[in-house]
Write a structure and sequence with these properties.
It contains three helices and five strands. It is α+β, with helices and mostly antiparallel strands and about 120 residues long. It has a single domain, classed as Alpha-Beta Complex (Ribosomal Protein L22, Chain A). The strands form two sheets. It has a three-stranded antiparallel β-sheet with strand order 1-5-2. Strands 3-4 form a two-stranded antiparallel ribbon. Pfam families: Ribosomal_L22.
Length: about 120
Amino acid sequence: MAEKLVKAEAKMVRISPRKADRILKLIRGKNAAAGLTMLQFLPHSAARYIEKVLKSAIANAEHNNKLAKDNLVIAQAVANSGTLLKRWRAGGKGRAQRIKKYTSHIRIAVQEGSR
């Protein structure tokens, strides 16, 4: 029987998907508790957002599926691009320069397994 994935997702997070994916790459496939500890000590701002989503996925697994926290493994960790916020800034000769503010949807899925 296939292992059931328990997911959590944060949408419209104000960080670019590239920056978030750099941190997600570090925890993908690791034990959930070890990944959480790693995120707490990383200096990157993306780690705070990812830590929050991972805590939510762990809580979903414990509460909804009655899974033990110690046995959880991070099966999927993805940052997809969200809505692009377009802002404008004054440019030379009365023109306007576009500023792109990237957002991302961070999705983490955990499953029961040993790693």
